[in-house]
Amino acid sequence: xxxxxxxxxxxxxxxxxxxxxxxxxxxxxxxxxxxxxxxxxxxxxxxxxxxxxxxxxxxxxxxxxxxxxxxxxxxxxxxxxxxxxxxxxxxxxxxxxxxxxxxxxxxxxxxxxxxxxxxxxxxxxxxxxxxxxxxxxxxxxxxxxxxxxxxxxxxxxxxxxxxxxxxxxxxxxxxxxxxxxxxxxxxxxxxxxxxxxxxxxxxxxxxxxxxxxxxxxxxxxxxxxxxxxxxxxx
Length: 234
Known about the structure:
Helix content is 68%, strand content 0%. The chain is built from ten helices and no strands. The protein has helices at residues 15-37, 42-66, 73-83, 86-93, 102-108, 113-137, 143-151, 155-178, 186-203, 216-225. α3 packs across α6, α4 (86-93) crosses α9 (186-203) and α6 runs parallel beside α9 (186-203).
């Protein structure tokens, strides 16, 4: 994966990994062709780097799970901020934005504080709402369990600790938006912000991403199917 070498596909142990690897390389080649024609070949390079960074975190999580390791919570969180996939998602969204020059892509891959905070919000919300399912399945790496072990607290106290971390991350986000001069175009900041905001919608009440039938389907219905009529002022 890190070499982006199709000849390495036979080194993979299963067919589904081979198919996935081939698909990633095919899409990457297609992206590179498109952006090169637009004179933005740097886009493909930085997206590949974001993919590599994401895959590294998956390797780490897989090792922890396979070896039944509960890492220190801060180490788990640092890895989880990237493994959530938000940074790669922002990089992909930027492909269609005129403001996304090479400096913008370098910023996205630079571990910027505001971007880490937005990804951290998403990770912590996901952890809180997926914890019960992970416990039922067993053998899953759990951020809540890492927190409980690290700080010697109950599950309830761990969840309160998570909520406090989320408030801290939102503070970092607010400070980042007030920074002047802005390190990056506001449109790109808003693209990232929308991911963090969506996490609140998905996860505040329950796991709307994994189990949309509980409440999220109803929210979508209210928004798109049966919206509240708003009379226009004449």
